[in-house]
Amino acid sequence: MSISLERLRRCSIAVDLGASRTRVYLKRTGLIVDEPTVAAVNTRTGAVIAVGAFAERMTGRTPDHIRVVRPVAGGTVVDIAMAQRMLRLLLGNKLRRAWRRKPLPSAAVCVPHDADPLAQRAAMETLAGLGAKRVELVDTLIATAVGCGLPVERPEATMIVVCGAATTHVAVLSLGSIVAAERVPVGGETVDHAVIQHLRNAHALMLPTQAVRPLHLVLGDTALASLGAEVHGRDVATGLARSVQIDVEGVRNAIRTPLTGILDAISAVLRRCPPDLVADLADRGIMLAGGSAVLPGLDTLLREATGVPVNIADNPGVCAVEGLGAMLEGKVQPHVLSSAIT
Ligand SMILES: Nc1ncnc2c1ncn2[C@@H]1O[C@H](COP(=O)(O)OP(=O)(O)OP(=O)(O)O)[C@@H](O)[C@H]1O
């Protein structure tokens, strides 16, 4: 995936279509959309009745004729038509105004490092269907590294761990390009399922998916965690509503188990790197990005297992689209990404 920085500067919007959230950056304006990648459809009429946060709130609470769908899975657009309808509604007037200013615009879109030609094509068609005359594809890892403000242009190793909803990417970058990268199917959703499974086994309680995030917030705050937390769900046996006081340590362990997959990916990447680059990482450490970077205990787990410093990016969820935005605005010097972007 090699594209020209000059062509990127001609793009008017940058899009990051994630399995969990969709982010859009409009040139000279900034981030204009940061919403869940969700649409609610009336199956009788085929009409999209809600998108984004409103549609996400409907999950698990809809009557038979309303279906909540996610057009992106694992970083790949799986339903192009639905992704276009969702984007159109999320952008609304903002898109029309931008399109009016520049009638033949180009758009840039992030795609996973290992996206196959079909996945790349799906991302291009999604944006082309919105009226973009040219669509530039940029590796999500490069965009995220730029968005985190990492000195990727230097001849020394930088390790980035991008922990999203469905997947985590681990990569070592040097001289503006990716030396080694690995993807594991572990992310925020995997952790949510592990927590739900734990409460089912330990407390015979079925927890709604939307109740997991408040639990993460409690676990991430030592003072709140020491007070414990009460969760509401459905009793597995009786089917009735029930509340339980959770065992904080048990939930923490449940979260830690799937996260060990990320450690395996880090080891695999390090094994493929030349020794000089691995030595650099002892000082520079690991940069954690992606929405799940703030999962309680992830940074500590990585720090303890690798023995190197681990930093969480500021606004970890939006690093990719902000990095892409910086390329559109011409804030990235050509020498910075000389080998990844020609
Ligand atoms: N405060 C938080 N605590 C725990 N998890 C969080 C928090 N904020 C976001 N997440 C998790 O981050 C994930 C979303 O991350 P991100 O926005 O990077 O996803 P994405 O880019 O759509 O996913 P992918 O990269 O897999 O396509 C969700 O699974 C969500 O549960």
Descriptive tags:
342 residues, alpha+beta, Nucleotidyltransferase, domain 5, 2 domains, five-stranded mixed beta sheet, 12 helices, 18 strands, flat, disordered C terminus, binds adenosine-5'-triphosphate, ATPase_NBD, MreB_MamK-like
Structural summary, described in words:
The structure is a single chain. By secondary structure, this protein is α+β, with helices and mostly antiparallel strands. It has 2 domains: 5-144 and 320-328, Nucleotidyltransferase, domain 5 (2-Layer Sandwich), CATH 3.30.420.40; 152-312, ATPase, nucleotide binding domain (Nucleotidyltransferase, domain 5). The protein is built from 12 helices and 18 strands. The chain is flat. The N and C termini lie close together (10 Å). Residues 338-342 have low confidence and may be disordered. It binds adenosine-5'-triphosphate (ATP).
